[in-house]
Amino acid sequence: MVVCGDNALAQRLTRELAVVYEQRVIVVLPSLRGGDHGPQIAALVGDPATSVTAVEARVPDDAALRAAGVAEAAALALTSGDDQLNVHIALRARRLNPRLRLVIRMFNRTLGDYLENLLDRAVEVAHPELDPSAVDASTTVLSDSDTAAPSLVAAAVVGSDKIVHADGMLLRAKERALGAVSRPGGRGDREPLCTLALLPEGGRRRGARARQYAAEDAAEEDVDGVGPVLLPDEAELQGLAPGRGAVVLEAITPRDRPNPATGRLPRLPAVRDLGTLFSPRLRFSLGTMALLVTVLAGLNWRFGQGGPLHAAYLTLLDFLAINEPNVKEPDPQQVLQLLASFAGLMMLPLLLAVVLESYGAFRRATSLRSPPRGLSGHVVLLGLGKVGTRVLDRLLELDIPVVCIERDPEARGIALARSRRVPTLIADVTEDGGVLEEARIKRARALLALTSDDGTNLEAVLYARQVKPELRVAMRLFDDEFALTVYRTLRDTYPLAQTRSRSVSALAAPAFAGAMMGRQVLGAIPVGRRVLVFAAVDVRGNPLLEGRTVAEAFRRDAWRVLALDVMERSREGTPRPAHAPGTAPAGASDDGASHAVGVGELTWRLHPGYVLRPDDRVVVAATRQGLATLLAGAPPEAHAAAAAEPPGLPRQPRP
């Protein structure tokens, strides 16, 4: 495995590949003695327990890639934050080794999709002799900010869930009591797919509010040395207290959008929307002027000759000063003409005011808004870089009000905040202590500190704690030991408040490592400081899956089969209905409705007795160690351990 870069993601990815997957890793970086994380990577190179070497090159050109063994490597990860540099290296590497598996970090998702198609097609055109089934020369474009954004949002928003988007499906992990999980009669699209983790007891906490946070604190840190149990056995959940906390996986089907063919007319814009263009005083002046013209037209109709339309026409001519003088008309007609002329004179400054206010309104629309005075229940987002931009996009998708704080007026997320009319403050929280008060931190529901500087994030969180001790906060910290120390200190100082510390590179590294191992990693959901990875795994040739039932393929604290990829078999030419035989829930008939998610490519709630076939492709939830065992093809010692374990259910004949 070859990793290019000297940033936080490169360091964690190298450790992930070398320690978890036990792979030989070669890192290409400018220097082991300097740079962003050169010394940290040097520590991995000098560790005798890992197989990590390094190639120092200022620019990863062809010579550096050849020195790193790209021509014979299985996979290459490009972790630079520069999209253009990653594209350049990817094109060079694909030319040197058409069999190479590429994993590219890119922020621009549109460019990433084009690059995936381009590099994959280049292999097919230039090397038609390669067998696609035997050579996994795929290109995977991932974004660390996209991978970490759902977890960061979930860590800060009260009542929100840990969400992962994958292949058109929406999965969320939600903390519930065991009594609520087993409660019958729930909604079909909200019934738990499985139990991801069993949370430890809340310790010696007392009180209703303390019990509310006990499960979350237990997931964040071990309680009395006992951490959460990941992927527990269903039999293990029987007999436990109904109030015991658990993390369950739920699939949310997208709501049907309204059909435009139903004939419903679009709702007209409300009159109150004019307030964004004209001030109340100007609207009152315009209304008064219209009422005056209407009264003059009525009087003209009363004292003149002709119908109401003719009287209104003459009044408008007098109002605009384009009518002939009423010299030969009666006195009332002459007085009305003079009044209409005076009203027309007053209309000129009123029209000028309309033009000026409209121009000012359009200018304000293109500028950044200030936080409204009555704003409450919002999230204060500190930092609008790559990660902050993705988090802001997620918060807006959830219709959560946001107030942003950014020091750099040219940051990536400023354009998004301006286009979505998000209140944004251009200020430095470390220099101006009143910035958080201006962001209405006292009435906020949470604070997300997501700058790239750990000191800035910590300073903002400590200041916010003084202003509002019960505020829920989530900060971005790289160092795990430092993050755990900060968490413990803030938890002990503010026991009823919720504090979360997350590392973007730690959340993204499992997805990058899984993609380098040659399998499609759909996403990752953190449970405390551990991570559960969701991946699509081929059954063929894997003794831990092939020929086993779904129950037999389960391993506690390692992996669990969640769904069957129905469309994968259709692509291979094997017709398969949306509801595969034997995949109905236990106790249901074989022709019952399937619980497909998204666009129907996945079938959930597989029957425990369903036998996994060689041409199946399954979606699994696994720990990093468990996924490493599956992707490594199950080493001999794992085979022996798996064969020694008793099966969960007896094998059933194939339907």
From TrEMBL:
What the entry lists under Pfam families is as follows: TrkA_N (PF02254)
InterPro entries, per this entry?
NAD(P)-bd_dom_sf, RCK_N, Trk_Ktr_HKT_K-transport
Signal peptide location: none
Protein name per its UniProtKB record? NAD-binding protein
Composition bias, kind Low complexity: at what positions?
A: 575-588, 636-646
Alphabetized SUPFAM superfamilies for the sequence: NAD(P)-binding Rossmann-fold domains
| Disordered as annotated region, ranges | 570-594, 636-655
Where do the RCK N-terminal domain residues begin and end? Answer: 376-495
